[in-house]
Specification:
The protein contains twelve helices and eight strands. It is an alpha/beta fold. The structure holds the ligand O=c1ccn([C@@H]2O[C@H](COP(=O)(O)O)[C@@H](O)[C@H]2O)c(=O)[nH]1. Ligand LLZGTKA7 binds next to β8 and α11. This is Orotidine-5'-phosphate decarboxylase.
Length: 292
């Protein structure tokens, strides 16, 4: 008898999509949500919150996105709780995206990536969010690490918050991307990185594109035909920030096959008594909108 070979990154993401659809449940223990869930605003409260969300998501959706900041605010005790949440989520078979938004010069951002993407690391996740403010090239080492460890990156390209528009829609003045918007230039470079392994269903390099945006005005082409590995797109902005899942296909166009529909407060606000139903219902809505 031969054991099944372990799934690679693209297969793991694809398996989550195939089994449960494209919904991703954010794990954001805001103080008001801890209160709503009857938990203390402490590291223990945040850990308990995270573990309960993982339990509620299990068998209803396939992807979770812990927001690292809400654990980090308690210092080392918060990190200990986050490690538990990440480990439980991964051992429950969920695809885990650490929303850590790291970025720095190449040699330093590599260390950030090691924390989140190294196999066996206490903070091991399937993927992490990362910033290209210091240039997409500064992310070469995290990308190499992701490829070697079968992990993934989601690079901020066009973010859901309104304050980002002026910067992300600005035109690049020099280099091969001269004339493109900042968001469009990041998209183009990450698309190239994602194409490195064209035979895989999804590549290790993805982008963050907010669902609240008119992406064309950011220079993001949502009509370009997909070639090779599908580009993974982390899509925050649904629910509390105003985007509706019924708009997913209109917003993302040809990018839709790789879109991860991410929602945190809009689901977590259902509280401990309502979270299971809220997740199950939203997962169905997401798939109904995607025309499955
Ligand atoms: O462009 C971005 C990038 C990341 N986020 C993060 O997603 C969640 C959104 O939470 P909601 O409660 O669903 O609004 C949060 O963790 C953000 O830090 C984003 O909103 N926009």
């Amino acid at each position: 008898m031969t054991a099944n070979p372990p799934l690679n990154y693209g297969e793991r993401l694809g398996a989550a999509f195939d089994r449960f659809g494209h919904l991703c449940v954010g794990i954001d223990p805001h103080p008001w949500l801890l209160d709503r869930w009857g938990l203390a605003d402490t590291a223990d409260g945040a850990r308990e919150f995270g573990l309960r969300v993982v339990e509620a998501v299990w068998n209803r959706a396939g992807i979770v996105k812990p927001q690292v900041a809400f654990f980090e605010r308690y210092g080392s005790a918060g990190y200990l709780g986050l490690e538990r949440v990440l480990a439980e989520a991964r051992s429950a078979g969920l695809f885990v995206i650490a929303d850590a938004k790291r970025g720095d010069v190449g040699s330093t951002v590599e260390a950030y990536a090691q924390a989140w993407l190294t196999r066996g690391s206490p903070l091991e996740s399937d993927a992490m969010t990362i910033s290209a403010f210091q240039g997409v090239g500064s992310l070469a080492a995290p990308f190499a690490l992701a490829m070697a460890a079968d992990k993934g990156l989601f690079v901020l390209a066009a973010t859901s918050n309104p304050e980002a528009a002026a910067l992300q829609r600005a035109r690049v003045g020099e280099g091969s991307s001269a004339g493109s918007t900042v968001a469009g230039a990041i998209m183009a470079e990450i698309r190239e990185w994602n194409a490195v392994r064209p035979d895989e269903r999804f590549g290790s390099a993805g982008v963050v594109l907010g669902a609240t945006l008119d992406l064309a005005s950011f220079g993001v082409d949502t009509e370009e035909e997909e070639r090779g590995a599908i580009l993974p797109v982390l899509a925050p902005g649904f629910g509390h920030q105003g985007a509706s899942v019924s708009e997913t296909r209109r917003i993302y166009g040809t990018l839709s096959p790789g879109v991860i529909v991410s929602e945190s407060r809009g689901l977590l606000g259902a509280g401990p008594e309502g979270i299971e139903d809220a997740v199950a219902r939203r997962a169905e809505e997401v798939e109904a909108q995607r025309g499955r």
